[in-house]
Amino acid sequence: MTDYFALLKEPRRPWLDTDALKTRFLALSAEVHPDRVHAGSAAEKEAAHEHFALLNAAYNCLRDPKTRLLHLLELESGGRPKDVQRIPPGTMELFVEVGQLCRQADAFLAERAKVTAPMLRVGLFEKGMEWTDKLNDLQRRVNARREGLLAEVQQLNAIWAGAPEAGSAARRQALPLERLELVYRVLSYISRWSEQIQERLVQLAMD
User: Fold this and answer.
1) Prediction pTM value
2) Which homologous superfamily does the CATH classification assign to the domain defined by 4-77?
């Protein structure tokens, strides 16, 4: 497996400064851009394209907290986390609320789609605004949960900074990989919930 942290010359950490990451990526990609070897051999051009594509893949992975944590877990544990379907502890209430509100919003959208009379659509417009407010409020709470998790991820950097070197037998025992996996799973759910909420907001805005 390619170590994207090493490829982008970043320390292997749960939290990264995304602005600094972007600056480093742009500098590294400029050095190996395929245009720099336009006069080279076919093998040189192919190698440049592959390296450039790999840098892009690394950047896209590390700039997103969810995919970064997954990659870090794969590097530190030697494999992908198991596909666990159960809801992570502490998220059930929000899980239920998102599901219920999205189903209710879907029912309203289905009702609105059947109405064509202008006077009736005026009343539905007001109801649509109410559903928009409810979904926006829920989105804010989902985002707050995400920000709390990201703050925890940032604090975990201190443990990685003090851990034994990569590849050593003691490193895995020194790292809180179970906690990191839990954070990754919750972030995965939160990303899904945000997408579901945003999808309904877009549909509500279309009239």
Assistant:
1) 0.86
2) DnaJ domain (1.10.287.110)
